[in-house]
Design a protein that fits this description.
Number of strands: 6
Strand content: over 45%
Number of domains: 1
Helix content: 10-25%
Distance between the termini: 41 Å
Low-confidence stretches: none
Mean pLDDT: 84
Structural class: alpha+beta
Largest sheet: 4 strands, antiparallel
Strand order of the largest sheet: 1-2-5-6
Order of helices and strands: HHHEEEEEE
Shape: flat
């Protein structure tokens, strides 16, 4: 009994570390799918382009992450403005993350796709 509970606890611990499929593998599942299946799965594309009978559907996903400034301590100071002074030691940082997924459709079927951006995981 003791061994089985140890194995069970180990399995639960490892399950917490499980990571789902990558964006690459999730989008690859749409190859061969119809236009309707693509729109049903991902929604209406953000951009659509028709070139020589080929359709391109693009989906843009992006977000901005702002980290507030980190405070610093300056002091102690003496004189008319006695006491410590607190202020930003490091300025705020703003990071923009995004990924554009573009699907090529021929004859109403997904043929290929490309991923572009700094957050295509």
């Amino acid at each position: 009994m003791r061994r089985s509970s140890w194995v069970l606890a180990s399995l639960f611990a490892l399950a917490g570390c499980a990571i789902g499929p990558s964006l690459q593998s999730r989008m690859a599942a749409y190859i061969g799918a119809s236009t309707e299946q693509l729109v049903k799965g991902l929604g209406v594309p953000d951009k659509q382009v028709n070139i020589n009978g080929e359709k391109y559907f693009a989906y843009d996903r992006s977000y901005t992450q702002v980290e507030p400034p980190m405070g610093g301590f300056y002091g102690p100071f003496y004189g008319p403005y006695a006491g410590p002074v607190f202020g930003p030691a490091f300025p705020a940082t703003v990071d923009v993350y995004g990924c554009e997924t573009t699907f090529l459709l021929k004859d109403g079927k997904v043929v290929s796709f490309t991923l572009r951006g700094n957050d295509c995981r």
